[in-house]
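Take our chain:
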Amino acid sequence: MAKFLGLVRRRTSCGHHTTRQSENVFSISARRVERASAEPSPRPLLWNQFILEERFLDKFFLYFNASDRRTLAQVCTRWRDVLYSSPRWWTGLVAVLDCRELRSATGCCMQRFYNSLIRRGIRGVVLVSASDDDINEFIRQFPLSAHHVHAISLKGCTITDRGLEAILDHLQVGAVAQLLPSLYEFSLQAYHVTDAALGYFSPKQSASLSVLRLHSCWELTNHGVVNIVHSLPNLTVLSLSGCSKVTDEGVELLAENLPRLRSLDLSWCPRVTDNALEYIACDLNHLEELTLDRCVHITDIGVGYISTMQSLVALFLRWCSQLRDFGVQHLCGMRSLQLLSLAGCPLLTSGGLSSLIQLRQLRELELTNCPGASPELFDYLHEHLPRCVIIE
């Protein structure tokens, strides 16, 4: 009985302990509920608050491209601040500055604009209709461009060698110093720039500058080409479009000294002949794109040289007025060719053009303004080249 009572006694004491634990737990839970009820629950955001929340905007802006975000940044200061806070919203954009409009802008406005370029990480600048004075004003108002700008383009400008020297001295766009070691592309359209200006390119830029486009530099001669090949031997893209004083000898220099070229544009170079194409075919073994628009002295012989280039993917022969059907026959052996333009070639016939069906890998064919291209020819080409876009 004592044992039984002792056992019962132990059970009773254990039961009291369990009861006390339950009471304690209940008391703690009650206090938590009481405390939780005392704290106000977060109120749902109103619409005008929600559209200003950074977490929402970070997702919302993803539905738009960089160009659209220019407009979104003008909705309100909050949206502008969020968009300006990260360069990721502006990838791929360049700043286009029309210097005629900038002449009437205040210095304060321009300073804010240049600061916004830095905040957005926009590293490409296009100066339109710039004069020597505009170049100097750009340098004065945007001194940080020396470290910030990676690519600069001059379009429709009237600058002289003096203006080009000023911007090169400041920006080091392939010139006399090292402030832009990461510059990889330089595009210039300036009618009065001479060979002397290209002497500012330094070998120190040879490792980074890969793309050089010189459009309508009418005063540029073979001497300027010498400066290019000596200073920039690692170019992969070169355009001399409209550099009308460059001759076959200049092209020979390019072919011998720029072995890494992948793209070459000699359009509107009237002094380029079949001899230049022979140099290109012999030395530029990795060339993938060649543009010869308006090279009026090119004949079937020159096209025959080009046809031996197995690396060529894109060939543009627009308005090559001496090209005949025999030259087209040469092209039919280019098994790597995917883009071909024969637009405006007046001597080509339907018979010659019909042979292009041999180019099974062709993806785009331009035959606009070809007198020999008849509706029947286009039907024939569409039938035999079903995967090719034919521009009529």
Remarks:
- The longest strand covers residues 151-157.
